[in-house]
Amino acid sequence: MALSTEESGRLAALLSGQADRVTSRWTEIVTSSLRGRLSQAELRRQVQDLHRVVVAAAEQGDIDLTGDKAAELRAALSELSRGRARQGFSATETTVSIFALKDVLAELVQEAGGSNALHDYIAFSKLVDEMGLFTFESFVRTRESLIADQAEQLLELSTPVVKLWEGVVAVPLVGTLDSARAQVVMERLLQTLVDTSSPYAIIDITGVPAVDTQVAQHILKTVVAARLMGADCIISGIRPQIAQTIVALGIEFGDIATKASLADALRHVLRLTGVETARRQQPRRGV
User: Fold this and answer.
1) Which pLDDT tens digit goes with each residue over 270-283?
2) Could you tell me the sign of the dihedral formed by the alpha carbons of 42, 43, 46, 47, in that order?
3) Which residues, listed in sequence order, are joined to residue 201 by a DSSP beta bridge?
4) Among 202, 12, 21, residue whose Cα is nearest residue 103
């Protein structure tokens, strides 16, 4: 929906002729919808910026939100959407800030009167509708991007690779191991093996609730990838229920070392590395 040159001119005159009143009334309407979640000063600044770019676009004539003349207006709407999404506002609260302009225009058009009043208000309302829809779509894209980033961060936090001591790293897995997480585990483990030059890695599945064929395949792929890097893997946390499931599924770990607990895996690695684990006897008193 594009405004004609005459309509754009009347809109610019209407908004710029009473700029202070327009921004104040616009801010007042939006304030009630946000329920104090944004400071009055910040909200007024946002409204003033929107007012400025709408007037600037209208003064150029033939407002078309998809056209080159409305580039600054689209940028302002996108910036508002991104800011509100990062601050935790909803899509409705964000688009209401745009639709509030309709109420302001209704008051101005009614006061101005004239034979074109109804026609102008309908045309202006359609433009505001397009601005609101554009804002909503920008908000959704930003929110989806934020959710994807947060999911990636949580995925990385849920798959830590810990260096236990020189030459030995451990991957304590907790929760379900799906394809995406398995890929992260493999990448982080391999990178840590390269960074630390560790010949041994312990994959602890004590916190994995269940092991099915898919989970077992993910673990085996990780072990094979580590072997290609020159590191041996020990799988720990094989509880009786998991052992029975693995046998029932016919899954074979081959020559991969498996242990019932992380403590057993640690003792196994200590023997492989030749570290003395026997406790030293305390010297007797008086000797």
Assistant:
1) 888 775 444 434 45
2) negative
3) 169, 233
4) 21
